[in-house]
Amino acid sequence: DQQVKQNSPSLSVQEGRISILNCDYTNSMFDYFLWYKKYPAEGPTFLISISSIKDKNEDGRFTVFLNKSAKHLSLHIVPSQPGDSAVYFCAARGNQAGTALIFGKGTTLSVSS
Amino acid sequence: GAVVSQHPSWVICKSGTSVKIECRSLDFQATTMFWYRQFPKQSLMLMATSNEGSKATYEQGVEKDKFLINHASLTLSTLTVTSAHPEDSSFYICSAIQWGTEAFFGQGTRLTVV
Fold this sequence. Notes:
Chain A is 0% helix and 56% strand. Chain A is mainly beta and 113 residues long. The chains are: A mainly beta (113), B mainly beta (114).
């Protein structure tokens, strides 16, 4: 049973436009959510996170929105750049220190110039 | 951000041999390290959770006798794939966390068993 779901395996966006990547989760015990960017044959790179006590966190071009009632979060990238093309993973963990991240299957973002 | 170094980045081994992968936190002490595996076009699947000085906790379906994890210090965890078979070929990634922070990942190890 997948606890973190990214239902869109891919997304194509033009340079300069907004990219919106979606993520749903089922475990109500999750209280910390993260987005990672990953290139092939490399480890994931942390992008941005959000705690369950917030509904929005912004860092430069990246904004994460959290809707706890819907168990849904999204990553907005604006403006999108060709260098943003990668696989984006949504991850979540519970509130106990030392718990592992549970990942979604990832969404491949392609930004065309 | 914090740096996690994983070594080797790529290894090819013969079926039946064992391979050791190292994961080091270079500039922080990691209270917990995790080992993940990723098959092509799949998500990162958690294999085990490793706390310094104690036995690793394995996820359901992961053979602890096949995937030996040692976490001898706060900066080093190792994963040994014993008696490797072609189906063990995968991309293995470690991550490390300090208390209450986000996880930092190593660069991953591509294991090919021939």
